[in-house]
Amino acid sequence: MIKNLFLGLILTLIIILISFGYLGLKYFPKDALRTLLLLDRKNLFYALLSLFSFHTFDTLRVIVLARALKVKYPLWYGYLVSLVNTFGSTVTPAHLGGELLPLYTLSRRGGHFYQILTIVTMKGFSGFFFYLLFLPLTLNALLRDSRQTKEFLLVVGALLLFSLTLFLLYKLLFKKDALFQKNFLNKLRRTAFRYFITCKIFFRTKKKEFILALLLSFGLYFSFLFVGIFLVRAFNPSGDILEIFLDQLPLLYAIFISPTPGGSGVGEFGALPIFSPYLPEDTIGLFVILWRTLSQYLSAFLGGLIFLILVIIDYKKRHAEQSH
């Protein structure tokens, strides 16, 4: 796992450097410092508060699901889990690390494996409901402006196709045997069946907790979207909150389905046509860099440091036990 996370981290950093470099060269203001100093501080503070709310809702969701299964985690540890999850999601394709790392972080504080697996499963399942229920609004947002939609779909589609092509080439060149030996459909069937049974049992016996987890998931995604809303208003205080909220939905879906680690590249380039109607062209590059840093990369950086510290602590503890 550590090796895959390290490789994912290197790939993510390369994509971030390329995308941020492009934005800096083409869409950066001449006087970036003056632009930053002129930002509306109140909305900038609200953007930071939305980021804190994102991790708060994520923390409370884990705690609610855990306590429904008779597993207790302190509030402060929940924030660590949330930050480490963000790191895992950012450095793995299709955000897979956001589901794998909780198995490690939560197991450190007790609980059986099946309990932790159920917590992670229900966490992901509750988040899926947001994407399901907001799909009609997302489609409506895409239909509002045909020019903006065409530009957005062209950028995202090209990046998705490019990243998938690179992934398949990597598999064919370096993991050819593994690619053809895996029975993908059978694996998908078994996984879907296991998730269905787990969710069915949990929903039947823990209805109140499940509904509360759904509400917390909605709060989590709303908080993420409000980071973008308040940051836009820091640049442009007259930006309409509802319009910015709706326009971000297709970008949220694009980042979610992106095969690149954490949606890197897709998030940066996909943001250009989404946010450009609200911002001058010479500030859009600075905005996107700030938005991606604040909404994801800052938390991922902190989560990576926490994960490294936890691994070192556990390694030293295991080594001390073996010595005795």
Automatic annotation (TrEMBL):
<dbReference type="GO" id="GO:0005886">
    <property type="term" value="C:plasma membrane"/>
</dbReference>
<protein>
    <submittedName>
        <fullName>Membrane protein</fullName>
    </submittedName>
</protein>
<keyword id="KW-1133">Transmembrane helix</keyword>
<keyword id="KW-0472">Membrane</keyword>
<feature type="transmembrane region" description="Helical">
    <location>
        <begin position="6"/>
        <end position="25"/>
    </location>
</feature>
<keyword id="KW-1003">Cell membrane</keyword>
<keyword id="KW-0812">Transmembrane</keyword>
<dbReference type="InterPro" id="IPR022791">
    <property type="entry name" value="L-PG_synthase/AglD"/>
</dbReference>
<feature type="transmembrane region" description="Helical">
    <location>
        <begin position="113"/>
        <end position="132"/>
    </location>
</feature>
<feature type="transmembrane region" description="Helical">
    <location>
        <begin position="76"/>
        <end position="101"/>
    </location>
</feature>
<feature type="transmembrane region" description="Helical">
    <location>
        <begin position="152"/>
        <end position="173"/>
    </location>
</feature>
<feature type="transmembrane region" description="Helical">
    <location>
        <begin position="210"/>
        <end position="232"/>
    </location>
</feature>
<feature type="transmembrane region" description="Helical">
    <location>
        <begin position="297"/>
        <end position="315"/>
    </location>
</feature>
<dbReference type="Pfam" id="PF03706">
    <property type="entry name" value="LPG_synthase_TM"/>
</dbReference>
<feature type="transmembrane region" description="Helical">
    <location>
        <begin position="45"/>
        <end position="64"/>
    </location>
</feature>
